[in-house]
Amino acid sequence: MSKQAHAGIIALVGVYLLYLSYQLLEARMGGDMTLPTVVAVLAIGGFAIAGIAVIAYAVILYRGSKKEEEPKDRDSLK
Q1: pLDDT at 8
Q2: 30 located within any domain
Q3: CA distances for 43 relative to 11, 21, 26, angstroms
Q4: Are 55 and 11 a contacting pair, CB within 8 Å?
Q5: How many domains, the chain?
Q6: For residue 63, what are the domain limits?
Q7: What is this structure's pTM?
Q8: Nearest to residue 18, comparing CAs of 49, 60, 57?
Q9: What is the 3-state secondary structure (H, E, C) of 11-73?
Q10: For residue 59, is it within any domain?
Q11: Residue 2 domain flag
Q12: pLDDT tens across the length of the chain (78 residues)
């Protein structure tokens, strides 16, 4: 698997974590959640922070893989 594909899969995991956070928030606001408020807020915040961190990591991996593909010597392109 290429490093770019790996970064893409990791980014999808981050998006899924953000989606979980949104679903928990939506359930909490709709009154459908049986969790205590403190636990719900911690879970929502935890998933949101984790999702953002995973997406940031995927972006760093993707940019690193792009830099590795660039030739070291630009004169070799001629």
Answers
A1: 95
A2: yes
A3: 20, 7, 13
A4: yes
A5: 1
A6: 15-67
A7: 0.80
A8: 49
A9: HHHHHHHHHHHHHHHHHHHHCCCCCCHHHHHHHHHHHHHHHHHHHHHHHHHHHHHHHHHCCCC
A10: yes
A11: no
A12: 888 999 999 999 999 999 999 999 999 999 888 889 899 999 999 999 999 999 999 999 999 887 777 666 666 555
